[in-house]
Amino acid sequence: MYHQKKANKIYIFIKMLKIIKIGGGIIDNEQDLEQFLQTFSEIKEPKILVHGGGKGASKMLNQLGIEPKMIEGRRITDKPTLDVVTGLYAGNLNKSIVSKLQEFGCNALGLSGADGNAIKGSKRPVKTIDYGFVGDLNDESVNKELFQLLIDNNITSVVCAITHDGNGQLLNTNADTIASTIAVAMSQENEVELNFCFDRIGVLRDVNDDTTLIPKINETLYLQLKEEGVIFEGMIPKLDNSFKVINAGVKNVCLVHARNINSEIKTILC
Question: What is the pTM for the complete model shown?
Answer without folding.
Answer: 0.92
